[in-house]
Structures are given as structure tokens and as C-alpha cells.
Amino acid sequence: MVYVFLANGFEEMEALAPVDLLRRAGVEVFTVGVGSDMIVSSHNIPVKTDTTVDKIVLNDGLEMIVLPGGMPGTLNLEASPDVLGAVDYCADNNRYIAAICAAPSIIGHKGLLDGRYATCFPGYEKDLKGAIHSARLVAVDGKFITAKGAGCSMKFALKLVELLVSKEKAEALESGMQSK
Fold it and tell me: I need a surface site. Which of 60, 88, 114, 164 has the fewest CB within 10 A?
């Protein structure tokens, strides 16, 4: 099961590409609203979430959390004690933490990227405390998946499918969507 956290000001492609592709791959995904179940994106698109952050359960069923970027969405995610608690839970229990664009700064500020390869939207490298900056569009190091930004949302989402399902499923989705 995967939680994709949405806070006001999130970047649409970075959030919804993973939701879409993971669901196509048969993964149970919940969009999680921070503060409400009606969240407004950075481009003023309202999105009704499946649940809210105060109702989530952190247990063995959780495989991954996804932190989309966007501004002020990233700042709103980081301001949530519940989101930070989910990050801590995943780090402490060897679960995947995926973050794209500015959102890798959240896990960087917590010191979780120390000595790990990571990438982010240009200009946020200083927030990846102790990370080894990767020039890749999507960087995977252990249970941490980071990506540069909206333009690589599909590559990011396909990598999540590969990690949770299989490389073959990711390739089949990519081919079937005419992106390859």
C-alpha cells in the first residue's frame, strides 16, 4: 500500500503520475490530504483526496510514501507533523520514501540522505544535507527515490512501479502508454 501526500500548492504531474501508474500496476494507492480532503494544487486545480493525514495508519501494510513537490506544497508537507511522522516511520522500518522536485528537501532536512545519492529540482541541492548529488533525472539509493521535477514525473512513476511490482510491468505500462 502507498500513501501519496497532497498539501495545498502541490505540483499536479508529480503527484498524479505516480497515483495513476501505480494504480494501473495494481498497487493499492491512497491520496492523503494534509489539512483537508479537498486540496488545491499549485495551478489552482482542486483535488479530492481518498483520506486525510489524521486518518492514516502506519503499519506493516505500508510499502511506500510519495512526497510530490511544488510550491508552497513542499513547505506545507514539511510543516505537517503527521507527514514527518510518516517519513520517520518509513525510515525506521525500511520502507520506500519517494520525493520529487523540491520535496527531497524534506528528507534532506531530516538528515536521511547523508551519504546517499539523491537528486532534486535545481537550486535545492543545499537542502539535501550530506547527500551525494546525482545528475540523473531519477536517483535510487536503497529505499530512497528522488527525482528532479515535473518533466520527469513519468520516469519517476515508472521507477516506483518497477520497485513495487516489477521491471517488466513498468516496461509494459511505458509501452502501452505510447511513451517509448
Answer: 60
